[in-house]
Design goal:
This protein is α+β, with helices and mostly antiparallel strands and about 425 residues long. About 25% of the residues lie in helices and about 30% in strands. The strands form five sheets. An eight-stranded mixed sheet has the order 5-4-1-3-2-10-6-9, sandwiched between helices. It is elongated and about 100 Å long. The model has no long low-confidence stretch (mean pLDDT about 95). The structure holds adenosine-5'-triphosphate.
Length: about 425
Amino acid sequence: MLIGIDDTDSTAGMCTTFIAKELCKKLEVIGFPRLIRLNPNIPYKTRGNGAVALNVKTGNNEKIKKIVLETVEKNAIFEDDKTNPGVVFLEKRNFEDYNIYTEILRDFYEKAISELVTIGEADAAARQVNAEVHKFKSGRGIIGALAAVGADLSADVTYEIIAYRIPKNYGTERKIDPESVFEMDKKTYPKTFNNVDLNLNKILILPRGNDPVFCGIRGESPEIVSEAWKLIKPLEEIEDTLIFQTNQATDAHLKKKKISELMPFDCAIVSGRVSGEPKNIHGGHVIFKLKYYSQEIDCAAYRETANFRKIIRKLRAGDKVTAYGGIGKYWAINLEKIRVLKLKKYYEKINPVCEKCKIKMKSEGNGKGFQCKKCKKKLPEDAAVLKEINRDLKPGFYEAAPDARRHLSMPLVRMKNRC
Ligand code: ATP
């Protein structure tokens, strides 16, 4: 039986993966539990828009459902307005099944990972596949819960090992030997990724907040994330660890679209030409306009993307690029990465060299031509020599700093290794 759960946590505490961990102790779970990230731009998320799915060995199904629902009821933060849990059960189903139901579920997942979907759409899809749906409060969580059981990880998959704190430590500062994390990264990167930001000298495995998660280490396989966990030194007691199979770092959310096809909160890959100079705006963000025929949209590299903004500032009108990112609160593509396809050639006019004296001629003033200082020979303005400007930028991929990276964004190192 497949079980999907979402929206149990709030900024005050809890984490839906914790409920999955509790269920793994109570039920016979087949394979890895799944941590499925969904559209990172939607406004309802608490943090990383993650939902969980489990494949549980069937037996007394009513008892299994009771355990799941009671575990959600016991742990979800119901007092928070934004917490609206949802649970779905799909009997006699495995993640790998392929039938018409799976197709409906996969389509629903594909939509929920890159667009905005409604509770009504989730209800309709659940009905079509005979899923048993349990809504708490508004029940918005059924969107994530249903998408999580429908997630298709056959094309790409990654893993995260999550370590959980003992309850006494919830809400206190997480204690770890940071050096051990850098050492772990040195030994396991790029098979592990997004765990440190070397430029900022910062470790990225510790979440902020009051939730039960101590740390999460992301990597390519269950083996490498367990090895990485053994290499780091937590300085507090750890209750449990659990490895999740995930869609993180796979770019599964990004779909090729034209500017005119974009809708609010979409995640997309959009190609066009830069129109106009990038601008620095209040708050340290950089924006430029991307144009495809008559369609135009702003692309933004936020302050948090750090050095990525330096690249964006180097773009010039006419450059051909592909933007990877999503529409957030404002009507603009929040850039996760960019591919510079072709740089427009720009030229500067430089003074000509006097043929006789072999020295650079002097400008006589704007539009007034040139004169040789030595032989006094004059040349008209159009004798100026055109020199291509060094753009200090090369075609290729550029990405936001690890600290600002979306869970779903594929790091360039993964892209390279998968080619
Ligand atoms: P955490 O990462 O700590 O688990 P979260 O960021 O996952 O928290 P949730 O508390 O799960 O946030 O809230 C996200 C809510 O948005 C859920 O109710 C989920 O069902 C819903 N949701 C997920 N994807 C979409 C989508 N594409 N469109 C509309 N709603 C969505």
